Amino acid sequence: MLRTLLGELPRQNEGLMQEAIENMVTALQKLQTHIEQNNDPTHDYRRAEIFTQGLISSLDELEQSHFAAAFFRKKVKAGYVDDMTLEEQADYARYVYFYKDGFIRLFSVLDKLGNMLNDLYDLHTAKVKPHFSYFTVIRQFHYLKLHPELENKLYQINESYRDPVSRLRKRRNTEIHLMSAEMQDDLWQLHQSLHGKVELEDLDQHLEDLKLGLDMACKTLSAAFEYTIQLWGEKGLQPS
Question: Where's the Cthe-2314-like HEPN domain (predicted)?
Answer without folding.
Answer: 51-228
